[in-house]
Write a structure and sequence with these properties.
Blueprint: E1 3-6, H1 9-12, H2 17-21, E2 25-27, E3 42-46, H3 53-61, E4 66-71, E5 89-92, H4 105-110, H5 134-149, E6 170-174, H6 181-185, H7 190-203, E7 208-212, H8 215-218, E8 235-238, H9 244-248
Parallel strand pairs: 1-2, 1-3, 3-4, 6-7, 7-8
Antiparallel strand pairs: 4-5
Length: 251
C-alpha cells in the first residue's frame, strides 16, 4: 500500500493516520529526504505552513503525490494546542480550503467538477449533478441540524453560558490567533481586524460590541489581535470559555 513520507514529527504522532491515508505506515524523522521511495508512496505536510516547502520539493523531485493535511471541521473535544488528538482531518491534494489564492479539492467538489478519487477516506460523489442528489441533500440537512442540536464545533469542551442581561442589541466580533494561516489565506491581515471592529462600532453605535477571543488565546498558548485596550463602555472582551453555537444564539 505504500508509505506516507513526512518531514513533520507532529504528523508522525497523529493516531490512526496510516489507516486514514491507506498506507502501510507513516515514516518521517530523522532523515526523510534520504529515504528510498516507491511509486505508491505519498508525501504529506500540514496546510500551507512554510515548513512544508521541503516536503513539497521532495514530492516534486520524486514525482509523488503531495497531500496537505488540516484539522477537520469537527476536530476534537479539547484544544489541539493542549494536545487533544484529532477525530477528523482534511486531506487535500490540490490546495487548502482556507486559501483564497488557489482552488482546493473541496472547492472543486462543491462546483461539481469531476475529480480523480483520492485513495484515502470515503468516496465522494463527483460531477456536475452529484450534489443535486435528493438523498445526499437530505442527509446534509439532517447532519447540519444534528450539529446545531448537539452544539458541535471545531473544539467541543466549552459549556453553554448565558450572557448577562442587556437592553441593547449585541454585535459579535470574532478574533483569530495572530499569524494563523487562514488570515493570509483569506487575503486579510492584522489591519483587517482593526477595520472590522471600527465598522462594527460605526454601523451599530447603540449596540454592545462583544469581542470573542480565540480559545487558544484563553489557554495562554497564543496571542490574538484584540485586548483590553480595545474595550470601552460599549465594547467588552469576551474571554470566557463558551460554546460558540450557544453564543451565536445570544447575539
Amino acid at each position: 500500500m505504500g508509505v506516507a513520507i513526512t518531514f513533520s514529527s507532529g504528523i508522525c504522532r497523529l493516531p490512526g493516520l496510516a489507516s486514514l491515508l491507506g498506507v502501510d505506515e507513516v515514516r518521517g524523522s530523522p532523515w526523510p529526504f534520504a529515504m528510498a521511495v516507491a511509486p505508491d508512496d505519498v508525501v504529506v505536510g500540514w496546510g500551507n505552513k512554510v515548513n512544508t516547502q521541503r516536503a513539497r520539493r521532495f514530492a516534486t523531485r520524486h514525482e509523488l503525490p503531495y497531500l496537505r493535511l488540516e484539522d477537520g471541521f469537527l476536530r476534537s473535544v479539547g484544544l489541539g494546542v493542549s494536545g487533544a488528538p484529532p477525530y477528523s482531518l482534511v486531506v487535500d491534494d490540490i490546495g487548502v480550503y482556507y486559501d483564497a489564492s488557489r482552488p482546493s479539492r473541496l472547492e472543486h467538489l462543491l462546483n461539481g467538477q469531476a475529480l480523480q478519487a483520492l485513495r484515502v477516506g470515503n468516496p465522494v460523489p463527483a460531477g456536475p449533478d452529484a450534489l443535486d442528489d435528493p438523498a445526499l441533500l437530505e442527509r446534509a440537512r439532517h447532519c447540519m441540524a444534528q450539529i446545531v442540536t448537539a452544539r458541535l464545533s471545531k473544539y467541543n469542551s466549552s459549556l453553554e453560558r448565558p450572557l448577562p442581561p442587556c437592553d441593547r442589541p449585541r454585535i459579535l466580533v470574532v478574533d483569530q490567533t495572530a499569524g494563523d494561516q487562514s488570515i493570509a489565506g483569506g487575503l486579510a491581515g492584522p489591519d483587517t481586524f482593526v477595520h472590522m471592529l471600527a465598522v462594527a462600532r460605526r454601523e451599530h453605535p447603540d449596540a454592545e460590541i462583544l469581542i470573542k477571543t480565540h480559545p487558544d488565546v484563553r489557554s495562554g498558548r497564543k496571542h490574538g489581535h484584540f485586548g483590553v485596550d480595545e474595550t470601552d463602555e460599549g465594547t467588552q472582551l469576551l474571554t470566557e470559555d463558551i460554546n460558540p453555537i450557544h453564543l451565536l444564539e445570544q447575539v
